[in-house]
Amino acid sequence: MRIFVIALVTLCIGVFGGCSQKKYFEPKDVRLQAEFPHKLPAPIVHTSRAGALLKNYEVLDISGNIEIELTKNQRFLGREHALYLVQEGCGALLLIDARTKTQSELEFSKCIVSASIAPQDSHTADSAVLSNLLALVSADNSVIVYDVVTKREVFAQKLANVTAINSLAAAPVFSHGKIIFPTLDGKIVIYDRASNALVRDVLIQSDKFFNNIIYLVVKNDIIIAATPKRISTIVGNSKTFNYDGDFRDLLLHKDKIYVLSNDGRILELDNTLKLLREVKLEYARLHGIVIKDNTLYTLESHKYLIELNLENFLPVIYKVSLPSKKPIFYTDESLFYDRFYKRF
């Protein structure tokens, strides 16, 4: 038995470089302190791209507003203007007006991972073609178009089975009479309302686990899509550019893409995914991206706030005092951690 224990310890040291020697970000001479002075009504217990659920069942949305409260079995899926989309467990969908608190119940029977409500602006080109529609991606990797007027599915297609899903699941995007769906198996598929069919699919990455699309943005004729292992930009119908790595999160700002890497790097890419600049913070675990006044902000674990000036790409590091291992959420101008937040 003693020989087995010695062998096991030797193997552990040989393979992992020491079982307990986990590396941490340890900057030297950090004298600046940052405060998270504001408090939410309750701590965050769950986050998604759509919003954050608080412990008291209130919803913090991507605009930084708290306007609805859920019941225990409900899940928040998204918002368009004052209209919120909520699901009862893995059943009925609810459209809730935040101003009047009235709600419409839609019969449904699948767990939804991500969703979008058609734009409610009558002046947009999409509204005439895609009005009254919900775009849904279900946990079994089906893409679904649901008409809220007729209260029925107008299109549904089951895609490949998936094993595990990254919690940062991107939502579908409505664009020019089409819906771009981010799938759970590393693709984007494009639905055309006029033909009521999928007219294109693009494979971003084919990894088996945690390969869902975590980021999807459409700007002009460019689609930017990413899995945790690959970022792709698709220009028109002809050109595709790829950038591979190990990514935690990313954000399009103006004409640049800013990426948080799992090895502690912050990358700046152009639309063709050419690497323009990078900064390496060794062993840093970066969470959340806010860009305000030409400055990027991100949290390193619960210990440091990183401030990166986008003019010179030089980081400034601040100490923060936050509880460990709590959920993080961010909006265009605020970072939320546990029940504390900071506006920039």
Compact summary:
The chain is mainly β and 344 residues long. The chain is built from two helices and 32 strands. It has a domain of 175 residues: YVTN repeat-like/Quinoprotein amine dehydrogenase (Methylamine Dehydrogenase, Chain H).
Quaternary arrangement of the chains shown? Answer: single chain
So how many helices? 2
Radius of gyration over all CA atoms, rounded? 22 Å
Given the helix and strand composition, which structural class is it? mainly beta
> Care to count the β-strands?
32
CATH architecture of the domain at 70-244: 7 Propeller
Present the secondary structure layout.
Elements: H1 2-16, E1 38-39, E2 44-47, E3 51-54, E4 58-61, E5 66-69, E6 74-80, E7 83-88, E8 93-97, E9 103-106, E10 112-117, H2 125-130, E11 133-138, E12 142-147, E13 152-158, E14 173-175, E15 178-182, E16 187-192, E17 197-203, E18 215-219, E19 222-226, E20 230-235, E21 239-244, E22 247-253, E23 256-261, E24 265-269, E25 275-280, E26 286-292, E27 295-300, E28 304-309, E29 315-319, E30 328-330, E31 334-337, E32 340-343
Antiparallel strand pairs: 1-32, 2-3, 3-4, 4-5, 6-7, 7-8, 8-9, 10-11, 11-12, 12-13, 14-15, 15-16, 16-17, 18-19, 19-20, 20-21, 22-23, 23-24, 24-25, 26-27, 27-28, 28-29, 30-31, 31-32
What does this protein look like?
With 344 residues, the protein is mainly beta. The chain has a domain at 70-244: 7 Propeller (Methylamine Dehydrogenase, Chain H). 6% of the residues lie in helices and 49% in strands. It has two helices and 32 strands. The protein has helices at 2-16, 125-130, and strands spanning 38-39, 44-47, 51-54, 58-61, 66-69, 74-80, 83-88, 93-97, 103-106, 112-117, 133-138, 142-147, 152-158, 173-175, 178-182, 187-192, 197-203, 215-219, 222-226, 230-235, 239-244, 247-253, 256-261, 265-269, 275-280, 286-292, 295-300, 304-309, 315-319, 328-330, 334-337, 340-343. The strands form eight sheets. The protein has a four-stranded antiparallel β-sheet, with no helix packed on it. Strands 2-3-4-5 form a four-stranded antiparallel β-sheet, with no helix packed on it. A four-stranded antiparallel β-sheet has the order 6-7-8-9, with no helix packed on it. A hairpin with a 3-residue loop joins strand 2 (44-47) and strand 3 (51-54). The N and C termini lie far apart (58 Å). The model is unreliable at 1-18 (pLDDT under 50).
